[in-house]
Design brief:
- The structure is a single chain.
- The protein is an alpha/beta fold and about 160 residues long.
- It has a single domain, classed as Rossmann fold (3-Layer(aba) Sandwich).
- Helices cover about 40% and strands about 25% of the residues.
- The protein has four helices and six strands; from the N terminus they run E-H-E-H-E-H-E-H-E-E.
- A six-stranded mixed beta sheet has the order 3-2-1-4-5-6, with helices on both faces.
- Helix 1 links the parallel strand 1 and strand 2.
Amino acid sequence: MPMPTILYPTRGGRSSYPNQERVFALARERQADLLLLYVTNVEFLGLVARAKVVDLEEQLDNMGEFLLAMAQERAEQAGVRAETLVRRGEFRQVLGEVVAEYAVDTVVLGAPSEKTGLTTLDFMRTLCAELSAETGVPFLLVQDGEIVETFIPSPPEQADD
């Protein structure tokens, strides 16, 4: 029987360490493989010259690979086997594609610390609930190294015969 897979999208960096540590512990508890994901999206650049966009995409990919390599090393030091994956595109769409492609069992999203976050906890809760429903996979929301909420997708409704 294959090991369960936990997907953890991360931007890396020191502020995400407490959440990463919680994900590493969860992977150990569940004896799960860990997939670390970094998503880049440069669509906000709009009409910037294509050559500059391509260069920026490559630089962002390289930064993502570096940050994930650091997280992967930390996971291995914590006794967890982790794969890394850098993808381009809109976060929601990429997440759904990766969940399906890798037969992910659980997704963990990290909410930023209240001190450093650009998004709110309410926004993250809404996002987790919507993505869990869309993908059919449980989502865990972690903040400051603690699981703050679990989102279980509702079973599909049965059609009346």
